[in-house]
Amino acid sequence: MKLSLVCFAAAILVTESAQAGDILDFPIPDSPIVIPAQSESGGTSIADLIALYSEATGQHCVMDSATQGYASSTPVSSQAGGSMSIAPERVQVTFETLLVANDFVLTPLTADEPRLFSITSLNTARRNTVSSLGIFLPADRVDDAAAHPAILFTTAIDLPGIDVRNLASSIRHMFPDENISQLLAVGSTSSVAMWGFGPMVKRTRDLLMTVKATNDAENKVLRSQREADEPKRRAPSPTAVQVRANGGLQAVRIAGA
Amino acid sequence: MRLSTASSIIAVLLLLSGCQSLGLGRAAVSVPAEATLGDVVALANSSRASTLVWERDSEQYALQSLGLGGPLRVPVSRLDDVTHALLLWGGLIVIPGDGQDRIVAADDASPAEARQVDRALLLAEALPPATFVMTTCPQPGEAGNPTHLRRLAEQWGVHLSGVDDNLVLTGAADRVTMVLRAFSAI
User: Fold this and answer.
1) pLDDT digit string (tens) for A213-232?
2) How many Å is the maximal CA-CA distance in chain A?
3) Residue B31 in domain
4) How many domains would you assign to chain B?
5) Chain A residues close to B17, C-beta within 8 Å
6) Could you read off the pLDDT of B125-134 as tens digits, one per residue?
7) Same domain? B78 vs B133
């Protein structure tokens, strides 16, 4: 009996661990990674950085041939002077920051082992279709997007009480390239859909929520003013009483004449 | 005693299924660093994880390099999903058929060839990600004309058409699932 219970518990543990993971749970390396200093013979390229990251996290990268070319020829831009050591818990966000600073997009392809991700250069023809790589994130998980500057996300935000068509058209200039950032009013609903890199999606969501909070506060003030004015509006005004009285006198005169 | 024997059998079966899901105790294949999409499909076919054939005109995609930094080890139990993920990344979809599935460029696939599936199946992520599917979903909220939703769906390469209050979504299973999730948030 004891044996069967142990077997059963082990089975549940193994089965649970076999379930799909979260695509945004990236492995954290065991130790810091070091990007070597630039040398006269050349510096660290984006391709080298990807190799370092892949090795440290045990993930595998896929790239089309045009992106491979750009990755090999693009030096890591933020590397002035000495080597750069990145703490394990900062590896993911630093890697993504360096990618996006050099016009590369990261897309996780699998949530389970083997972990695969793709890198796409925005300087290739794939820029036109890169929005299809966006990951849908529910509105309540948009905060998670902030830590992923090189991943494209799509989300939908509900803004009841706001004219979303007007809002979307008035801030359209904030999204100049619809391949990598866009805000759309969805039909006649009170929702907007948007896509873009993680921090941008979070910032825009915060902006929209501020607009909504301001709008809600204004509506509350207007509503309480209206409620305060309601008794006055219902009570007959002195002028109206006078007019009614005059009308009555005239009526008496007409009847008497 | 009978109860304990029965529960032991169930436990062992569950353990085996869990191990298989993890790829333990089963063979794994190695994808070479210089592999192309065609090589991965050939590996998947040889391991009997699937039977995929390249449609005429999509064969050029088979030559697409994956640019893997090093060899990739894939448990056989995960080979189908990994192959689908890579095909989807390469702009391809898989049209399910009898006995063998066809690989077609997503842009060239006709919605008429999509496999009709229930959206619950998609939301449960029960299908390989590049499977070409068609599903219906109720029009979200008071969205009005479906053309308003079309741009959102097209962002993921999903074709959207409207039938009264029901929308018809056609595309790769993984992408259609994302559209369904976005629509449910509206």
Assistant:
1) 998 888 888 888 888 888 77
2) 117
3) yes
4) 2
5) 15
6) 999 999 999 9
7) no
Spell out which residues of chain A touch residue B65, defining contact as CB-CB under 8 Å: 64-65, 68
Residue A2 zone, left/alpha/beta (φ > 0; ψ -120 to 50; rest)? alpha
What average pLDDT does the segment B60-77 reach?
A: 90
Tokens of residue B56, six digits: 């005429």
Residues B30 and B102 in one domain: yes
pLDDT of residue A240: 57
Is residue B49 pLDDT above 90, yes or no? Answer: no
ipTM: 0.79
Mean pLDDT, chain B, as a whole number? 84
Most A CBs within 10 Å, among B36, B89, B175, to test the A interface: B89
For chain A, which domains are there?
Answer: 21-129 (3.30.1370), 134-229 (3.30.1370.120)
Which of A155, A185, A188 is facing B142, going by the closest CB pair? Answer: A188
Entry field: residues in chain B: 186
Q: How far apart are CA B128 and CA B82, in angstroms?
A: 9
Chains A, B: CB contacts under 8 A, how many? 156
The DSSP bridge pattern shows strands B101-105 and B52-54 to be parallel
